[in-house]
Amino acid sequence: MLDLFNLDGRTALVTGANTGLGQGIAIALAEAGADIVAVGRSAATETGARVAEVGRRFLDVRADLSSTAPARAAVDAAISLSGRLDIVVNNAGIIRRADSLDVEEADWDAVIDTNLKSVFFLAQAAARHMAERGGGKIINIASLLSFQGGIRVPAYAASKSAVAGLTRALANEWAARGINVNAIAPGYFDTNNTAALRADPVREPAILARIPAGRWGEPGDLAGAAVFLASRASDYVHGVVLPVDGGWLAR
Ligand code: NAD
């Protein structure tokens, strides 16, 4: 039974794997057996060491995903590791906070380009390879703001709501090609992305009080969902946005 979750011999590309949720996901996939290709702006040295500790291969690819230019080269680099690409985790993302009356166009564009446009074109580049090979797994990192509006983050809410729609749209088109496209919607996790919230003496306790599990998430809390959606265990799962949120959306 547990063999369904085994990722031995697979190659996984994870964007933004140097820190935070991407790092947690990369380590989880490696522990399940996958070789890891980290794609991002900064060196993923610590992640590489953790992947090596569990005996998997690791490739670190520099790419700025605020534009779609590196998408094809990143996929080609991933394939060069072992001749195949089985899993893509579209994790890299940014958030810009401002009252909606004050949002600047450059900030709007940066968020939409990184969180949405690059997600589509990286998925497209990977799916062209996966379709030829008979299948693969694409996991997009959505958000609670795929379901809710949030506060002072309109571009982020728009981008993550669109990621949910994109996940369903791609699942519809690519399921018949053996490609599973799904998303994980993390709740409130302790990473750089939420540093401003955790430092806010009003927002932090208000958020914590609303989480049924009674604590913020840690990157390792995504391990099970990520391995499930990356493995044969999810072969008949298409187009879901799976909340991993300590119960936040259940309230
Ligand atoms: P983080 O800021 O620690 O990590 C973001 C990652 O994305 C980093 O590796 C960063 O280098 C990378 N990145 C950002 N812009 C990039 C670019 N232009 N090119 C290449 N890489 C780029 O935050 P995190 O919380 O780990 O965020 C990971 C994902 O999870 C994001 O998509 C975020 O929106 C999402 N998310 C986070 C939370 C949370 O509570 N932390 C909740 C829901 C969703």
Automatic annotation (TrEMBL):
Which InterPro entries does this one have?
2-deoxy-D-gluc_3_DH, KR_dom, NAD(P)-bd_dom_sf, Sc_DH/Rdtase_CS, SDR_fam
Q: Which UniProt keywords apply?
A: Oxidoreductase
Its EC number(s): 1.1.1.127
**GO MF terms, alphabetically ordered:** 2-dehydro-3-deoxy-D-gluconate 5-dehydrogenase activity
Query: Pfam families from the entry?
Result: adh_short_C2
Check the record and name the SUPFAM superfamilies matching this protein.
NAD(P)-binding Rossmann-fold domains
For the keyword Calcium, the answer is no
Q: Tell me which residues make up the Ketoreductase domain.
A: 10-205
Q: Does the keyword Oxidoreductase apply?
A: yes
What the record says about family reads: Belongs to the short-chain dehydrogenases/reductases (SDR) family.
Name of the protein: 2-dehydro-3-deoxy-D-gluconate 5-dehydrogenase KduD
Q: Which species does the entry assign this protein to?
A: Massilia pinisoli
The record's gene field reads kduD
